[in-house]
Design goal:
The complex is a heterodimer of chains A (220) and B (806).
Chain A lengths: L2 E12 L2 E13 L4 E5 L6 H8 L7 E6 L2 E2 L5 H11 E4 L11 H11 L4 H14 L15 H13 L5 E5 L7 H16 L3 E5 L3 H4 L4 E6 L2 E2 L1
Parallel strand pairs in A: 3-8, 3-9, 6-7, 7-8
Antiparallel strand pairs in A: 1-2, 1-4, 4-5, 9-10
Helix pairs in contact in A: 3-4, 3-5
Chain B lengths: L1 H14 L1 H29 L11 E10 L2 E5 L2 E2 L1 H9 L4 E7 L3 E7 L2 E10 L3 H4 L4 E3 L10 E5 H8 L8 E4 L3 E9 L23 E4 H7 L1 H8 L6 E9 L5 H7 L10 H4 L4 E6 L1 H5 L3 E2 L2 E2 L3 H43 L4 H38 L10 H27 L3 H6 L6 H36 L10 E5 L9 H10 L3 E7 L9 E2 L3 E2 L10 E6 L3 H5 L3 E4 L13 E4 H7 L8 E4 L2 E9 L14 E5 L6 E6 L5 H15 L8 E2 H7 L2 H35 L1 H9 L4 H35 L11 H27 L2 H6 L2
Parallel strand pairs in B: 6-11, 8-10, 20-25, 22-24
Antiparallel strand pairs in B: 1-2, 1-12, 1-13, 3-12, 4-12, 5-6, 5-9, 7-10, 8-11, 9-10, 14-15, 16-26, 16-27, 17-26, 18-20, 19-23, 21-24, 22-25, 23-24
The chains are: A alpha/beta (220), B alpha+beta (806).
Adenosine-5'-triphosphate binds next to helix 1 of chain A.
GO molecular function, one term (chain B): transmembrane transporter activity
GO cellular component, one term (chain B): plasma membrane
Protein name (chain B): ABC-type antimicrobial peptide transport system permease subunit
Chain lengths: 220, 806
């Protein structure tokens, strides 16, 4: 088992009232799964994904990731765990504007303290795999949305994560670009990478092996 | 990793050119000012430290109490030096008597030059441990020797060997050059400002004391008759190595009192030692105690320097934090790809270190470029301290502190958030960040307003003192010092010749120059004088034509007249003297002095001959052709000044062929009295401009970010029908309020500081309130102007455009 959420609650206090963002979420994810999270807008999909990705905390419950208890870990330790195993893909790409494609790809490796030659090899490999060798010296602003998302995914993959979390990765793309990304996910999943994606599209969700539905922060 | 940081930093610097310019330029400017002021202070503080023994050297000064008022003087009687030497032999290493420094004529072959120097006892060279380039410290043992500075030797002899050359001193005495000493550094002087009278000049020569004694009969008399009551000499000492100046000073304090005649004992003369390190910085005395001097300016500019640097640092922090909002996204992304907190802190600190180093490098370059100009302004010869490790240490310290301060906020604040929050943009400008920035802006404006109003007060004070009535007419008035005997007994011939040449309207001689007071005396008596009142009155010995030449204003009575033989013993008083003596109807009253009775024939309006910031002292004018030191010439108004001067020089050469023709315009000499204040005005003016400029840079940057952040809001407001004017008002109102608030705090501070400064001057303005109004308004105007660019741009922009960018 890759990760397990037990009775997760998350809330915010607003005007003396407690508003629940996540309510009693229980989820087990095994390695190699491809899960799609669906639900109406505001139902808590992104919130759940961020909690899984350790980008956000929760208020109650237990979270185990590869036998580590995430809820009791120190920030530094959690950050290491995250760095080691998780890659994130965003709807709005979130590339660094001041860095070229190549440098954006290289960044996670720098934080993981890879040597220079190893970094070069990995970056070259990724550029090749995603067919963006010709774009390596361009800045994000010089790429199309689909190309930027390719770079985003390549960046998430470069340090060989076990788990890819994608929050509406095709939300800003046209249907053809979206399909290509989904094909890519499928292929990665076949290679053994676990994927959890948030999506509004039934068609995209169908790529996954399992669908989780959220409504008002509760799994249904 | 650092390569990656560097890349990001360099790219974001070059991408945001305006921002980088403001940020780096502002800091560089602040550092430049701080460095210049620092160098200046260092120069002032190291005054006279070139003398090896400087912490053991002192001058003997005396405090005298007259009518309840203590005055500090440097003039001492002849026998004191010998007394100190013999009675306190163990406490002193050297005791050296010296004449007052002054211009003397040094002649070699056809060359005649005015050189500045003094006559000193033979241990002088050892006492000050002069660096001898030629000869040794025994050079003054021979009574016909002279010791020259390297530059004086060069001026007289060029490349010839100076040692052993015979030359003439004041055209009368033959002396032999026995030594050449290295020129003193510019921040050194063997004479206190007090003893060197107004402008202290560079020391060109020292002649032996015995020569001085043989030159002047009155000195010889003072020596032979052991006159304890004739104060015409100064005394320098070096205390012995195992003693301190303080201890010895205490020990010797009654030495003078014990020997002076009973009459003089009434003024309770108490001698003390004034340490060499204080000669420059603490040269003023009030009520017998050290009362500032140049140290005041050192402190004042020190504070200004710290403030300007503070302004620049505040700016730097302010802009960095404002910008860090923009960097929030980057922080979020970096965190999601695996950066931990420390790495982010590292990155931000590295960036701010980089920027600070750039600014420091630019500042060093600016300092090197500006030093010549600064030296001219501050009357200094400061060099850039390339080889001074202390300078680089302080520089390093400054760099680290500044970059830490500026970088710590974004580093610690932003990196502490969970990445989702930063990515979502929900931490945008926390309330505390905004108010913190407002505080910083307020501090900047407080400093600016203080500096601006301070400069105006200094200016007012100078103007006020300059407009003060001086009681004579300095237009076309020149004065020539009679450095030799060549003119003695030739008064009438000279006057006739000058007048005949058509260049001179009138000529007179006087004991004092027009801008200084050289002697005062006690022992006056008149009808109705309180017997306990100890008198001290300034004496002007003048020729008959003095009043006409300088154009004084006779208030009562009349001028001296050649036709009345009795006028040779008559007195003319100034108004201050009339008040001092408490005379009613002074004309025709009699005043008694040692030499007999004198009739007062007139009263003139006060002539401003000393400090323009002090009240005019009581003075008596009397006829005495033997005691005059200065020739005063009123140029003829019919001729041009150059023409007149040429004629005068021709006549002068006929009477005194071996004396260089040197003169001063009274106007210039008078202007010199404002030198320190003028310098202060110039410097504080420049610093205020810089302070405002730096503040405005910051404000400009800040308003840019404010406008940027509110683009969307402005767009929506416009769509809903807001006018451009109302938007402009909305955007600038905050800043106006901030400036007003700053003014509220700045006024009392500025008032207090300037009041303290004005207390130094007896004759001073009361601070006019409009100064603060003008300061606040002008700062406000400049601030509004600065932000209006951004506010107007944001208000005018097409709303469709601004909404689409979101
Ligand atoms: N910091 C917060 N404070 C208050 N409410 C929040 C906060 N963050 C999220 N919410 C609320 O939590 C709910 C879930 O938000 P979330 O972003 O997870 O929705 P989502 O399912 O991803 O929606 P969408 O499909 O539109 O992206 C929303 O109602 C949102 O308003
Ligand atoms: Mg969402």
């Amino acid at each position: 088992m890759l990760l397990q959420l037990k009775n997760i609650f998350k809330w915010v206090n607003s005007g003396g009232q407690r508003i629940f963002l996540l309510k009693d979420v229980n989820l087990e994810v095994s390695e190699g799964e491809f899960i799609s999270i669906m639900g109406p807008s505001g139902s808590g999909k992104s919130t759940l994904l961020n909690v899984i990705g350790m980008l956000d905390g929760f208020d109650e419950g237990e979270y185990h990731f590869l036998d580590e208890s995430v809820h009791s870990l120190k920030e530094k330790h959690r950050s290491n765990l995250y760095k080691e195993y998780i890659g994130f893909v965003f709807q709005s790409y979130h590339l660094l504007d001041d860095l070229t494609v190549k440098e954006n790809l290289e960044m996670p490796l720098l934080y993981k303290k890879y040597g220079s030659s190893e970094r070069k090899a990995k970056v070259a490999d990724m550029l090749d795999r995603f067919n963006i060798v010709g774009k390596k010296d361009l800045f994000p602003a010089q790429l199309s949305g689909g190309q930027q998302q390719l770079v985003g995914i390549a960046r998430a993959l470069i340090s060989n994560p076990k788990l890819i979390l994608a929050d509406e990765p095709t939300g800003n793309l046209n249907s053809k670009q979206g399909e290509e990304i989904m094909e890519l996910f499928k292929k990665l999943n076949d290679e053994g990478v676990t994927i959890i994606q948030v999506t509004h599209s039934e068609k995209n969700a169908a790529y996954g092996s399992r669908i989780i539905n959220l409504l008002d922060g509760r799994m249904v | 990793m650092f390569k990656n940081y560097l890349k990001i930093a360099v790219r974001s610097i070059s991408k945001n050119k305006t921002y980088s310019f403001i940020n780096i330029g502002g800091l560089a400017l602040g550092l430049t000012v701080a460095m210049l002021i620092g160098l200046w202070i260092h120069d002032e503080k190291t005054f006279n430290t070139n003398f090896k023994n400087h912490d053991h050297i002192a001058q003997v000064l005396v405090n005298k109490t007259n009518n309840g008022e203590i005055r500090t003087r440097f003039t001492l009687p002849y026998p004191l030096a010998a007394e100190l030497r013999s009675v306190y032999a163990g406490d002193f290493k050297y005791v050296v008597m010296s004449s007052f420094p002054g211009d003397n004529v040094l002649s070699f072959k056809e060359k005649n030059q005015n050189q500045y120097g003094a006559y000193m006892e033979k241990d002088a060279l050892r006492l000050f441990s002069f660096t001898m380039l030629k000869g040794n410290h025994n050079a003054l043992n021979d009574p016909n020797a002279i010791v020259l500075s390297a530059s004086a030797a060069n001026a007289l002899f060029g490349n010839e060997e100076p040692i052993g050359k015979t030359m003439r001193l004041n055209d009368n005495f033959v002396v032999t050059v026995k030594g050449v000493f290295e020129d003193l550094p510019t921040n050194a002087n063997v004479f206190e400002p007090l003893a060197a009278f107004s402008e202290s000049k560079k020391l060109d020569f020292i002649a032996p004391w015995d020569l001085y004694v043989s030159m002047y009969e009155w000195v010889k008399t003072a020596r032979d008759r052991k006159l304890w009551d004739n104060n015409s000499y100064q005394v320098y000492v070096a205390v012995s190595n195992q003693s301190t100046i303080e201890a010895v000073s205490h020990k010797i304090k009654n030495t003078l009192y014990d020997h002076v005649p009973d009459e003089t004992k009434r003024s309770n003369p108490e001698i003390f030692l004034h340490p060499m390190k204080d000669w420059h910085l603490k040269s003023s005395f009030k009520n017998g105690l050290s009362y500032g001097g140049a140290i005041q300016y050192v402190r004042m500019f020190g504070i200004i320097g710290v403030f300007v640097l503070l302004l620049a640092c505040i700016n730097f922090m302010n802009l960095s934090t404002a910008r860090s909002q923009k960097r929030a996204k980057e922080v979020g992304i970096r965190k999601t790809v695996g950066s931990n907190k420390n790495q982010l802190i590292e990155q931000f600190l590295f960036e701010s270190l980089l920027v600070t180093c750039c600014a420091f490098a630019i500042a060093c370059t600016l300092v090197v470029l500006l030093l010549p100009l600064f030296n001219q302004l501050a009357d200094k010869q400061i060099l850039f301290p390339y080889a001074n490790p202390l300078f680089w240490c302080i520089g390093l310290g400054l760099i680290s502190v500044t970059s830490l301060l500026a970088g710590s906020y974004p580093a610690l604040y932003l990196s502490s958030f969970r990445p989702v929050r930063v990515l979502k943009g929900t931490i945008q400008a926390g309330k505390s960040a905004v108010s913190f920035r407002k505080v910083l802006v307020v501090v900047q404006f407080i400093v600016s307003i203080i500096l601006v109003s301070g400069t105006m007060v200094v200016n007012q004070q100078i103007q006020h003192s300059k407009n003060r009535p001086i009681g004579y007419n300095k237009n076309g008035l020149i004065m020539i010092e009679k450095t030799t005997e060549a003119f003695e007994g030739k008064y009438n011939v000279l006057r006739e010749a000058f007048k005949k040449s058509g260049a001179v309207a009138e000529m007179a001689e006087s004991s004092n120059p027009m801008t200084e007071v050289w002697n005062s005396n006690g022992g006056y008596d008149w009808e109705g004088k309180n017997p306990d009142f100890i008198t001290n009155i300034v004496n002007f010995y003048v020729s008959h034509d003095y009043g006409k030449t300088v154009g004084w204003e006779v208030k009562f009575g009349r001028n001296f007249s050649r036709d009345l033989a009795s006028d040779s013993t008559a007195y003319i008083l100034n108004e201050a003297a009339v008040e001092y003596m408490g005379l009613q109807d002074p004309v025709d009253k009699t005043i008694r002095w040692y030499d007999g009775e004198h009739k007062v024939i007139g009263v003139v309006k006060n002539m401003l001959t000393e400090s323009p910031f002090e009240p005019v002292k009581q003075a008596i004018y009397s006829i005495n052709y033997n005691e005059t030191n200065w020739i005063n010439l009123k140029l003829s108004p019919e001729k041009s000044i150059t023409q007149s001067l040429e004629k005068i020089e021709t006549e002068f050469a006929i009477f005194a062929p071996s004396i260089p023709f040197e003169f001063q315009f009274v106007d210039n000499a008078f202007g010199h009295k404002f030198k320190a204040e003028e310098r202060m005005r110039k410097l504080s003016g420049i610093f205020s401009v810089l302070a405002i400029f730096i503040s405005c840079l910051g404000l400009f940057g800040l308003s840019t970010f404010m406008a940027e952040r509110r683009t969307k809001e402005i767009g929506i407001r416009k769509v809903l029908g807001a006018s451009i004017m109302s938007l402009f008002k909305m955007l600038s109102r905050d800043f106006v309020l901030l400036v007003l608030f700053s003014g509220l705090i700045a006024i009392p501070v500025a008032y207090y500081v300037m009041q303290q400064w004005l207390e130094n001057y007896t004759y001073h303005i009361s601070i006019p309130w409009w100064v603060f109004g003008v300061a606040i308004l002008s700062v406000m105007f400049i601030a509004l102007f600065t932000i209006s660019y951004q506010a107007a741009r944001a208000a005018i922009v097409n709303p469709v455009k601004s909404l689409r960018t979101q």
